Amino acid sequence: MNLRACFLTLLLASLCLPGQGWASESVVFRQSERLQGQPLRIVSLEDITTEMLLSLGIVPVGVGGLESYQSQGRPLGERLEGSVSLGTSQQPNLERLVRLEPDLVIGTSSLHSGLFERLDSLAPTLLYRVAMTPSKRDAIEQGADMLRHLARLTGREAKAEQVLSNLDRSIAEGRRVARLAGVEGKPLAVLYPLPDQGLFIVSNEQTLVVSLANRLGGSNPWPLRDGATIHQRIEVHELARIPDLHLMFIGDFRGNAMFESPLWRALPVARNHDAGFLPSRYWSFGGPLSARILMQQMTALIREQWGSGTLSEN
């Protein structure tokens, strides 16, 4: 190997090191040059990074959006009782952050790209890439990539693989149940109702809940792929235009007046009992733990609402 080839090999290898400012992994948006492996005191500024840490058995010393994380019932929120609240994810309290003397601050490109220089001046900082940009890799795959990257950084690779293996089993079970229930190949959508307005929110293909619904093998009748748009609204009459439509509603709106109205009951999807409710209150972003919880809820809904096979997940 000549000198030029040796240099290029060493250069490419160096780009994979945790301490470099520009990481080779696409999951990393930006990171500090002084980033070191195996940090002990970690601050999380976003729900998805908080979940990632908790899933690896790491309790962050400080959390942006702590109150909302717990109030929404997100995974393992009870473990944050000893964490310091840093205000909202969008506007974290930097004075409190500095007092915690963290080894690492973790955020996301969607919320903290404009704060990177300021955060970097206070502590080693890592921003993960979270966006609605169209991609062949859905939110589930991107979440797995993010978890594996964080696991390598913190020495928790075995724990990450356990979490991802559990998710894979839940997805496989959901797909099996959907196939046996006759949902596979049918129009299938997950919507968030706005009952007072008679509207429904459709989510981007790169959101967690749509990525999960797509894994069930249905066909999304309202695919939203614009990277600049997370949600759009549709009117109730649009539900009548899709033959053999199957619907899952985020948030337990069961018993809401809209779903008891003559208008709703006249829709084919209501007459055919092809709509059901998911108890989860979050749906746009989340890590593998959120994904598994949502998939289990979807699987349970399919069993109860549309029937399926007899085997159940352990």
Structure commentary:
This protein has 314 residues and is an alpha/beta fold. It has helices at 3-14, 47-55, 66-71, 94-99, 109-112, 116-122, 139-154, 157-180, 208-215, 262-266, 268-271, 288-306; strands spanning 28-31, 42-44, 62-63, 84-85, 104-108, 125-128, 188-194, 199-203, 231-235, 246-250, 275-278. It folds into 2 domains: 18-157, Nitrogenase molybdenum iron protein domain (Rossmann fold, 3-Layer(aba) Sandwich); 168-306, Nitrogenase molybdenum iron protein domain (Rossmann fold), CATH 3.40.50.1980. The protein has 12 helices and 11 strands. A hairpin with a 4-residue loop joins strand 7 (188-194) and strand 8 (199-203). Helix 7 runs antiparallel to helix 8 (157-180) and helix 8 (157-180) packs parallel to helix 12 (288-306).
Largest sheet: 6 strands, mixed
Indicate the mean pLDDT. 88
Strand content: 5-15%
Helicity level: 25-40%
User: How many strand segments?
Assistant: 11
Order of helices and strands: HEEHEHEHEHHEHHEEHEEHHEH
Spatial strand arrangement across the major sheet: 1-6-5-2-3-4
User: Oligomeric status of the shown chains?
Assistant: single chain
Q: What's the Cα radius of gyration?
A: 22 Å
Assign the CATH superfamily of the largest domain: Nitrogenase molybdenum iron protein domain
Pfam family, one: Peripla_BP_2
Family: Belongs to the bacterial solute-binding protein 8 family.
Domain Fe/B12 periplasmic-binding: 41-306
InterPro entries: ABC_transptr_periplasmic_BD, Bact_iron-sidero_bind
